[in-house]
């Protein structure tokens, strides 16, 4: 989706080498584009077409510096792949809970730069909540040594939060101190058919009250989402008899071996059947079946690509407003663009919907792609009407700065711009990202 030309690519292996490169670029007035696993969906790690920007790849910075079991922390460099971080935590008998589709290739630095979320935010929070300290190379080449594994530090502004989610526009994150958690020893997974999105809201409230923090995942998806997976992902099959309008994938975890999680699921779903929130359900009897259920959810994005151009939107609204948002936005889109196929799915527990649009059956690609901006306007206008966000977990990159400038409070943009100017007065850190042209 995004292309650019770099003057060169530098691949430093240490923080000192990163700082040296940044100082050289600062003194020469050369823009830098930090890059990790390059799995982002908004073009944040891609240089412009000028051929004058330097791509700074952090993929050689892949050391796990320390595991502190007493403090429940792990200190890692920015180029560590998320799956490697998960495995290192597991080998130490702990859990690092961030989990997302690109975990086999995305890096910790990119996860931090975009404040990644994923499927376990409901229980553990996104990357911002999982981070205690950072090491950052500032735009002039100085290094902020903020690798403190402290859970309490009220000595002024919490600077790490400036850099988490900033997409490399304020500095380059080179390492982080991250939280660890006790590893789960029991898991319960259920696939549930629902009549409406409102039933999902009612069900998650009930499961939460019954299971408390054992509830680690609650993913909702439309029938259209599942049909694309069944059509295009090898080895997938419908777990239930007959089609249903909506589905939820529920996961419980416990640190206690042989915890009665299936009984908790059966109890919760039994009540849900009685109230009409659930039409049908199946509970995985082993890890293989659980993995097959998760494959249905995780295969949606890739499956949709087989249906032609996919207009993908990563929005969030309050959980209580998800049903009304879906109803009103679906209606507005079908009225303005008859026949479009709406692939609606996401992290129900934190209000994050991936609200994606595919062309009507039998239609050509080009006319559909020509409507991209008009379709986006309908979705973003509706998101704004529900006091939501046009980017829940993917960031702004170069895809959404103009939309952010339009839909965010002008005072918020002014404050963000002031922070950018204070830390990066020459505008050399990942220019063209986050801010609309002229607002950096």
Describe this structure in words.
The chain has 440 residues and is of the alpha+beta class. Helix content is 35%, strand content 22%. The strands form four sheets. Strands 11, 12, 13, 14, 15, 16, 17 and 18 form an eight-stranded antiparallel β-sheet that branches. Strands 4-5-9-7-8 form a five-stranded antiparallel β-sheet. A three-stranded parallel β-sheet has the order 1-3-2, covered by helices on one side. Strand 17 (341-347) and strand 18 (352-358) form a beta hairpin. Helix 7 crosses helix 9 and helix 12 runs antiparallel to helix 14 (372-385). The protein is globular and about 70 Å long. The mean pLDDT is 96.
Which helices and strands occur, and which strands form pairs?
Layout: E1 6-10, H1 15-28, E2 32-35, E3 53-57, E4 64-68, E5 73-77, H2 82-91, E6 94-95, H3 108-113, H4 121-124, H5 127-130, E7 131-137, E8 143-146, H6 160-163, E9 172-179, E10 181-182, E11 186-194, H7 197-211, E12 215-222, H8 223-232, E13 246-254, H9 261-275, E14 280-283, H10 287-298, H11 300-305, E15 310-311, E16 314-316, H12 322-336, E17 341-347, E18 352-358, H13 365-370, H14 372-385, H15 401-407, H16 410-423
Parallel strand pairs: 1-3, 2-3
Antiparallel strand pairs: 4-5, 5-9, 6-10, 7-8, 7-9, 11-13, 11-14, 12-13, 12-17, 15-18, 16-18, 17-18
């Amino acid at each position: 989706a995004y292309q650019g030309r770099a003057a060169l690519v530098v691949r430093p292996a240490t923080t000192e080498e990163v700082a040296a490169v940044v100082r050289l670029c600062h003194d020469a007035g050369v823009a830098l584009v930090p890059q990790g696993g390059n799995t982002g969906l908004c073009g944040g790690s891609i240089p412009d077409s000028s051929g004058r920007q330097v791509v700074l790849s952090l993929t050689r910075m892949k050391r796990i510096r320390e595991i502190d079991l007493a403090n429940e922390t792990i200190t890692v460099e920015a180029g560590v792949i998320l799956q490697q971080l998960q495995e290192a935590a597991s080998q130490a008998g702990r859990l690092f809970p961030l989990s997302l589709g690109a975990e086999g290739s995305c890096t910790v630095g990119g996860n931090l730069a975009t404040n990644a979320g994923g499927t376990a935010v409901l229980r553990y929070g996104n990357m911002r909540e999982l981070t205690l300290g950072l090491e950052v190379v500032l735009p002039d080449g100085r290094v902020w040594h903020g690798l403190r594994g402290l859970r309490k530090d009220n000595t002024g502004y919490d600077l790490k939060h400036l850099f988490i989610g900033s997409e490399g526009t304020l500095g380059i994150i080179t390492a982080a101190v991250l939280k660890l958690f006790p590893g789960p020893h029991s898991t319960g997974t259920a696939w549930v058919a629902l009549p409406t999105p409102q039933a999902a809201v009612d069900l998650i409230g009930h499961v939460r009250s019954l299971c408390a923090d054992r509830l680690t995942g609650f993913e909702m998806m439309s029938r259209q989402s599942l049909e694309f997976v069944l059509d295009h992902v090898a080895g997938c099959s419908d777990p239930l008899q007959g089609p249903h309008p909506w589905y939820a994938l529920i996961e419980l975890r416990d640190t206690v071996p042989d915890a009665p999680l299936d009984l908790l699921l059966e109890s919760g779903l039994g009540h849900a059947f009685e109230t009409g929130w659930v039409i049908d359900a199946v509970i995985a009897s082993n890890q293989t079946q659980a993995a097959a259920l998760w494959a249905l959810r995780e295969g949606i994005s890739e499956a949709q690509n087989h249906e032609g151009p996919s207009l993908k939107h990563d929005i969030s609204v309050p959980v209580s407003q998800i049903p009304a948002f879906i109803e009103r936005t679906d209606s507005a889109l079908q009225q303005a663009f008859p026949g479009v196929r709406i692939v609606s799915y996401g992290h129900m527990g934190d209000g994050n919907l991936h609200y994606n649009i595919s062309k009507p059956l039998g239609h050509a690609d080009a006319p559909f792609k020509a409507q991209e901006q008009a379709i986006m306007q309908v979705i973003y206008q509706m998101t704004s009407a529900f006091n939501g966000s046009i980017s829940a977990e993917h960031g702004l990159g170069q895809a959404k700065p103009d939309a952010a400038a339009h839909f965010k409070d002008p005072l918020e943009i002014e404050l963000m711009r002031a922070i950018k100017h204070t830390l990066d007065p020459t505008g050399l850190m990942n220019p063209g990202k986050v801010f609309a042209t002229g607002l950096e």
